[in-house]
Every structure is written in structure tokens, then in C-alpha cells.
Amino acid sequence: MSKKLLVLFWLVVTFCAVKIASNIVLAEFQVKTNSETGQWLILENDKPVLQYNYKILPLPDGYLESLLERNRKYAVPRSNYIHPLYDLDGEPITSNWTNHHPHYRGIYWAPPEVGYKNELGDLHALQKVFARPADKIETVTGNGQLKLVAENVWKWEDKEPIVREQSTITVFPVDKNGRKINLVFQFEALVDTVTLARRGTQLYGGLNTCLLPLKEFKIGSFYGNEKDSNEKRSETTIPKQEQPAWVYGSWKNPKSDGYTELTIFEKATNPDYPGDLIQYPNLNWFQPAFPKKGTRYTLKKGEPLILRYQLWLHNAADNDNAKKEAWKNFQNEK
Description:
Elements: H1 3-28, E1 29-34, E2 39-44, E3 47-53, E4 81-85, E5 107-109, E6 113-116, E7 119-121, E8 129-142, E9 145-156, E10 160-171, E11 179-189, E12 194-197, E13 207-210, E14 218-223, H2 230-233, E15 245-252, E16 259-266, E17 277-280, E18 285-288, E19 297-299, E20 305-315, H3 320-332
Antiparallel strand pairs: 1-2, 2-3, 3-4, 5-13, 6-7, 6-12, 8-9, 9-10, 10-11, 11-20, 12-19, 13-18, 14-15, 15-16, 16-20, 17-18
């Protein structure tokens, strides 16, 4: 082969290699958007990972008529939530538009008690206060990850802006340990005297997770070095940076003989960490709660509240030591 042909051959090979490598990088994550519905679907190598519903979605046809009269006030158009979340095989696992609790909607952060003007609104059950899109949303890729960043505004009586919310969803590539999805929520008061609380300050409220009625579904939690109750947790003297805690749901994988688990970690930097780990197995619903029981968290202008969580989809056979390691890795992430 002549020197000229040899140079040409290597140029072609190099171009093809770059082209192939480029295609692999570009094809790793895809984002499909629907400008009319405001739904952002994230895929990895053409397999769906999650859908973020940014704009307000109307009720499905005939849905209201299917509900009991007492539940119909909770059947409200909604936005700003993840649904579906897909398992590692690309099958949907979250629930939306349920008959038992019409306001349940996949994965969402929405306090059941938002205080303003000496009144209470309910972002969780979609009463009086609502998160509305601010028309600021984008995706960013880098370091093998995909980030979706969206801004919403909480509106009192669906009119007056009271809180600016920025949500960041970071999707990591699937690997031998499963898939990680990081959630960062930033809330900044636009007015004075906005407070956040759990239901009655005692019950649920925080990062809500509502799954489908999956096969052999079960819910559990872990705190410190042993499984124990919320009451016992409150008595611990272990520094929070050393307190691994998580809540999870697991189910039989329909495509194998194994089980899949969705584990939720909190960042130890969250105020009131670790939150109570709330579980409603009969509803396939669980969460790390915020704020601390019996309190109301006050949002102040110029002092954003930042809450960080991680969703980890993985093999349910992973033991507590593997989960402790995953918790530790999340704490060490910048």
C-alpha cells in the first residue's frame, strides 16, 4: 500500500471511530418533548427512564365520573411531577390518577400544609395552592449524566406567587449496580411568612412516592445500624452524618425470578435529617418526611431551602451493607 493510500486509510478509520464514539455518546441519553402537553421523556439507549410532567395536565376523559363524590374535589389538573418512573427493564412502576386518592401522582414534592396569611393551603392534595410552570426548563449533559432543570412558582389561590421552586433531576447511566437518579429541590419565599408542615404537623409530608400495585410488593425502612421505629430514632445521639437511613419498596420482577427495589436516600445536609420514614403499604406509598414532627418550617426571602434525595433502582437482593455503601457514596457526592 502506498504512503498516500495508507494515510487516507487511517484518516477514514479515525473518522469512523470518532463518528461511532460520537454516536455512542449522543445515543446514551435522549430527551423527547411534547410542546403541547409539556411532558419531557428521558430515555437511555431508547429505553425509557422517567417522564417529567412540567405543564398542567387535564383530567383523563371520564375520570371524574368514576370517582366517589367525596373524592372528586381532589381530582384536579396537576403539573410538576415525575410519572411514569420506569424500572430497569423500561416498565412503568409509578401510579397516577388513582381512584382511592385522586391527587396521588407518581413522585412529587408537595407539602400538605402550606401556611400563608394565617390560612393553610395543600400542595399535596391540590387545594388552594398550586405549583405552576414558569416556562424555564432545560436539559444539560456532561460527565455521562443528564440533568433536567425546571422552575415552577407556587401560586396562592392559583394567582399570587408566593414561592419559587427549582427542581433538578439528574439521571445516571444504568450499570451493574442499577440506576441512580438524584433530586434537588430549592425553594425560595417570594413573600413573608410562608410555612411548610406535614399533615397536622404529625403525619405525612415530604417526598411522595406512589407506585403501582406491583406483584409481591412490600415496603420497609432502615435507620442507623438496625431496623427500628420512628420513636427510637428520635432518641439517638449518633451524628447525623453517620446515620444511614432509607425507605424502600420492592416487588417481583415480571421478567425474571428476582426482585427489584426502589430505595430512597436523603442527603444528611437536609434540615431535620433523618426524616421520619412514612409507609402506607396498602397504598403502595412511602416517603422520607419533612419537616420534623410537630414543627412548621418557615421559608424566608433570600434564604432558600435546599433538599436533596436519591432514588436508587437495583436488585432487591442487595443487603444492608451494600445499601450503607450506596448511602455513603451519595453523601460524598458534591
